[in-house]
Amino acid sequence: MNPKTALTRLGAVVVAGGLAVAFAGGAFAGPAFAADSPTSTVTPGTSNATQISNLRQKCETAITNRLASIATATGAVQGAAHLTSGDRSTLLTQIGNEKTGLSALGDKIAGDTDLQTLRADCKNIVAEYHWYIIGIPKVHLTIAADDAAAVVGTLQDLSTRLQDDIDRSQARGRNVTQAQADENALNAAISSGQNAAAPVPALVLPLAFDNWTAAQPVLQSARTDLGNARTDFSNARTDAKKVIADLRALIPTPVAVTPTAH
What we know:
The protein has helices at residues 3-16, 48-79, 85-111, 115-127, 131-171, 177-197, 200-204, 212-249. The chain is mostly helical.
């Protein structure tokens, strides 16, 4: 993985921080009603049958939009290169359950003939299935956290190679004090980023889709952690560049040879 690409992806997840987080070109984003819930507006004189028809149409559209977003999320999870097998399996199971539940609720709404029952079922689209504000961030943050693990591997490999270069330069009698200091800073930044990102899947995956009050602070904490990881990885890249510059500065400048006149 290109660390810069992954850092950009992490940044998108962290900076968005909204209800539908932009990821992979924003393909997850879906339309939402006010307060993420379909509502009914009763016009005076409107017949009961017309109210039922109008509300049913809004609610069916709400479910259709969510199911389309769920299908996109499923494809993203299946195609995410760095998701662990456990995280992938958990997400696919949770997304599948969300799809099954919403589909069943849609079937019930389609058969509702009583306005009060229809209203109650429509409220459950959000009361039981907070897809946009819990499901989508959960998918984004888990993918981003596992991407971060791949960044760690890439940076650790780079650090190992740089340390080998430092050791070789020291063996040649060169003063590698500055290079080693920057190498140590590189390793510290990698470790800090790893420690910030690694706990995120375990934080967000257990979140229930029907409890926004409990999920909100957890999701915000996960975004903060990934933001810190992104900063650490950016610092690590900067430190790596410093080590390279340090080592280059230790390479002796070739002595120019003046041709001897004959």
